[in-house]
Amino acid sequence: MIKVTPGATVGILGGGQLGRMLAMAAVQLGYHTHIYCPDEKNPAEQVTDKISRFDYEDEKALIGFAKAVDVVTYEFENIPVETVNILSRYVTVFPSAEVLQISQDRLHEKKFLNNINVNTAPYAPVSTMNEAIEALKQIGYPAVLKTRRFGYDGKGQAIVRTERDVQRAWQSLNSCEVIVEGFIDFDMEISVLAARGQDGEIKCFDPAENIHKNHILDLSIVPARIDPVLRKQAVEIAHHIVSELNYVGVLAVEFFVSSSDPIFRVNEIAPRVHNSGHWSIEACPTSQFEQHIRAICGLPLGETSLYGRAEMKNLIGDEILDMDIYLKDPDANFHHYGKREARPGRKMGHVTRIFPHILPK
Questions:
Q1: Mind spelling out the 3-state secondary structure of 49-100?
Q2: What domains does the chain contain, in order, with CATH numbers?
């Protein structure tokens, strides 16, 4: 176990809004931050002590970054595993390269989950369209074709309802590393944020109910409107996953909830703080961002109980232009990510409302 004391520097790979909010949480706990991100004018650079703008494959720059910080984490899972391997020779990185390798490949992720007795949708790896057609004969229609890597917010996947759809779907993915996944007719998607410290302490946040628009998270409601037995089961599964991974930090576990499917299935895991947990900033004594910093720095984990029912609304694209409306609303906790251009589908900010004393019995 490494103890990183206040006054030290936390290195963060990635300069998006998650990196921004991680940096803000680190400062609250007395740390300096150093963002490593190749992108110009990224949201995190507005709130950090130092920024390094180099590619994730630049070994010389990575070594310099590693020697300038005391611990490293990352805000997204699509960085090269080799980047973490290089850094790990000089500084401790959480989560580990092994975790990253599992989570950024849908095939590795599903194999890992099934091996620890966590249910997922039925799946099969394929590398050609003909292999996909053969796999679909076993899995059945409808189904989803997904690229094994670099998929988020609905990208890198296509639904097939009949064999006639396969060619169009295959061509749209433009990849030969694909999995065929059985379609789950779910009623609701929920997520659980689980945090594990270096000493093995685990704390989970309440399950959030996630509502999407155009494949992008629109609204998270906490606690999720599910049966208490299911809520307990979701938390137990998330606890099990971070324990089996020997994980350090915050990890998000997404589930499908279906009244027509007796099996409770995990959709995917994300080895980082997560969009579906932004409500924790106002709704809990410890936010997901502070919890992550606590975990990677070897500090005790914080309390995750709810002050009340919470609703977090993503502000996508032009929705950020309603900023004045939210600022005039006494119940709205408004967050702007500092992005200059409000492009369609781009996450520009979020608003959280807390409803005290409205919690399920």
A1: CEEECCCCCCHHHHHHHHHHCCEEEECCCCCCHHHHHHHHCCCCECCCHHHH
A2: 9-93 (3.40.50.20), 122-182 (3.30.1490.20), 188-356 (3.30.470.20)
